[in-house]
Design goal:
single chain; alpha/beta; eight-stranded mixed β-sheet; four-stranded antiparallel β-sheet; 17 helices; 41% helix; binds pyridoxal-5'-phosphate
């Protein structure tokens, strides 16, 4: 039995009185609620190591004052109504002890950005604000089967906690081989660390590399998850504009500790960083001693031509932390990502992961290793590439047809979202009136303002809905 109250044998207050006050104060402070079952006098006496008579004396007083009620055959309960003469003095006196004192946040806590707020959905609403993958086409049955198989066959070590904080080695081997095949990333499996989504990779990277006041260069517009982290860690953020072939290197100043880039498909503008720009960036970082975080969040999805090799594979001695995720190729809730770190960062990264949350869940990692090893992941990616390409074409085609020059689609044919600039001043109002939800690009700019740009997701939305959404945006408001 969990002991609900404590007594102090060294106190001058008699034990029955302590028991009485323990219950009464807990009821007044609403720690115990009306209807809660109360342990029997025998149980409580046993748990506290007291005589039953002591507990009975306290219970009798509590019942007499209306804090407890006894139902014959069922036991004793906290009364649903507080007694009319519950001591107001007592209540007042108790309040300060139970009122939540303001909790002082650390500097990190104070610097956290606005909280995530899920948006309500409405009927008839066309939601173009979802940039995630299509869940309906994910082979969930197969995934369930793999999970169940692992639950059934898993040996005790898979249920144990410990081992390597860097992750389940068979999965790390699969990831290293996959990245070598698909992204020209050069690494051994022990440089791959499995994390809870790429957001954790960014967080740990900043913990390890950024001190308060350090400079961090970020794409502008860029990924708010990286900016919020940099600010929370006390970095001074250096905005770097983005052109049609990636990061505008001329904007880089001084020697930032690190630069966060999305070279495969700039988030959110959609440009792919040219090879020349990649080599220039690496050379620049080599001279400054800046660490590059290469955030390859959706590189699997390119719809024209092969992807350029990852910066990591071209780095040749420049420290590149390569970050990837299964959230975008599988499903958002999987929360498994990975980071490929330079050799010298393997030990600190693994220690930081261990301190943060020990390790990512092993059973999921084991199932994922098989999913990859049996070729399901790459098969799924190939299927999704075809599907998402046609959804993107539907979006771009509809924008051309219905809005013409009033909508400009930025970026390459890639990814799961497109950044669209509207030359219609009242597009926000049109979206609101005609029930289309879109994500404004405003918060993705460091200034907090975009030139009337919106991020439109297309991967998880069927073509008819996409076209209908765009048609609505073309409708005038009055
Ligand atoms: C650029 C970028 N980096 C990182 C992430 C975080 O991904 P995860 O879900 O793996 O934490 C996202 C999410 O979509 C993203 O767009």
């Amino acid at each position: 039995m969990r002991v609900p109250i404590v007594v102090d044998r060294g106190s001058d207050v008699p034990l029955h009185r302590q028991i009485y006050e323990g219950w009464r104060d807990g009821i007044l402070a609403r720690r115990f609620r009306g209807g809660d079952k109360v342990p029997s006098t025998r149980e409580l006496a046993g748990a506290l190591g007291l005589s039953r008579a002591t507990v009975t004396a306290a219970y009798e007083q509590l019942s007499a004052e209306g804090y407890f009620e006894t139902m014959h055959g069922a036991g004793t309960f906290v009364c649903r109504e507080l007694p009319d003469d519950a001591p107001t003095v007592g209540r007042k006196a108790l309040r300060p002890a139970f009122r939540a004192a303001p909790v002082a946040l650390s500097r990190f806590g104070q610097r956290l950005g606005t909280a995530y707020a899920p948006q309500p959905s409405g009927t008839g609403l066309i939601d173009l604000s979802r940039f995630g993958p299509d869940l309906e086409t994910f082979p969930l049955r197969l995934w369930r089967r793999l999970l169940v198989r692992h639950l059934r066959d898993a040996q005790p070590p898979l249920f144990a906690h410990g081992g390597d904080a860097g992750g389940y080695m068979p999965l790390r081997r699969q990831i290293a081989a996959y990245l070598a095949r698909s992204r020209a990333v050069h690494c051994d499996a022990d440089q791959v660390i499995v994390v809870n989504g790429s957001q954790q990779a960014l967080d740990i990277s900043m913990r390890l590399l950024v001190d308060t006041g350090d400079e961090v260069a970020l794409e502008d517009p860029g990924y708010p998850g990286a900016r919020q982290l940099a600010l929370a860690h006390g970095a001074r953020v250096q905005p770097v504009r983005v052109t049609s072939d990636g990061l505008h290197l001329a904007d880089l100043r001084g020697s930032p500790r690190l630069v966060h880039v999305t070279p495969s498909h700039q988030f959110p503008k959609g440009a792919s960083m040219s090879l020349a720009r990649r080599l220039e960036l690496l050379e620049w970082a080599r001279r400054r001693g800046t660490v590059i975080i290469e955030d390859d969040y959706d590189s699997e999805y390119r719809y024209s031509g092969p992807p350029l090799p990852a910066l990591q594979g071209l780095a040749d001695g420049v420290p590149v932390v390569y970050v990837g995720t299964f959230s975008n190729v599988m499903f958002r809730g999987i929360r498994i990502g990975y980071v490929v770190v330079p050799r010298e960062l393997v030990a600190p990264f693994t220690r930081a992961k261990w301190l943060a949350d020990r390790q990512s869940p092993l059973l999921d990692q084991a199932a994922l290793a098989v999913f990859m090893g049996e070729g399901h992941l790459e098969r799924h990616v190939r299927r999704m590439r075809r599907l998402y390409r046609s959804r993107r074409e539907a979006l771009v085609g509809a924008l051309e047809r219905h809005l013409g020059d009033d909508a400009v689609v930025h970026g390459d044919a890639a990814g799961m979202h497109a950044l669209v600039g509207f030359r219609v001043a009242d597009v926000r109002e049109r979206a609101r009136r005609h029930a289309v939800r879109m994500t404004s690009a405003d918060p993705y700019y460091l200034s907090g303002r975009s030139p009337n740009e919106f991020i439109l997701g297309f991967a998880a939305i069927d073509e008819r809905t996409i076209v209908e959404g765009v048609k609505r945006l073309a409708l005038r408001v009055s």
